[in-house]
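Researcher: Next sequence.
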Amino acid sequence: MAKKSVFGKLSRLLAVVGECGPAAVAFSGGVDSSLVAAAAAIASPGSVAFTVDSPSLPREELSSARRTARATGIRHVVVKAGRQPEKYYGNHADRCYHCKRHAFSLIIREAKRMGLSCVMDGSNADDAEDHEWGMKAARELSVRFPLVEAGIGKGEAREIARELKVPSWDKPASACLASRIASGEGITGKALQRVEEAEKFLKAKFGLKVVRVRVHGDLARVQVGKGEMGGFLGAERLRLVAERLKTLGFKHVCIDAEGYVRGK
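Model: Next structure:
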């Protein structure tokens, strides 16, 4: 992306964010929400980044969000999610809708209490299909999408975030732990904790950057980034993976030969 284009899109983003005045930013600490938070810190001083904390948010992701908020220069508030709507726990196709509507409702409540009239989300112009349910919930609650309004896609968001020196500009895409559990299998705190522990082990033990542990009943299907597959596969490593994941309660462990594929 040419420098001129980067600064053109950044100027458009700052204009969109500046229209809102001090705003609440739904903040995960990923590249997109971090870029919106950085833009808000510049164009709308007094804005606040809100992270909704629940068992589906890995502890390292929460710590990373705190570090990124500090580096970005925006006030950061963590809101406890509490009990999710019952339909969330059924884990059907609309799970994300119920989770996001609950999260946005909490942020809106806190934002009103702080005198912030605008709530912004980090969805980008490429997210319409992958984030359909979450964006539906946001639209119903009049949440704005500055990156969409500025015509900024995922790749452009990374380039602009890099120019602004946002520390998470090259962070791999992530998703909540609930997304690892096969549709129709109930969401429980124990299941989420098991996934978090498994992924934490794989990252720490093997230095993996992209890893997902998909849950299918008692079976764990391990996905790693395609560029990391070659160094990961090996009899001894696979033995260690199976051994550790079985201590977490999985009866069967398999490696996805296709590697990590978004949405798979």
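Model: The mean pLDDT is 94. The chain has eleven helices and seven strands.
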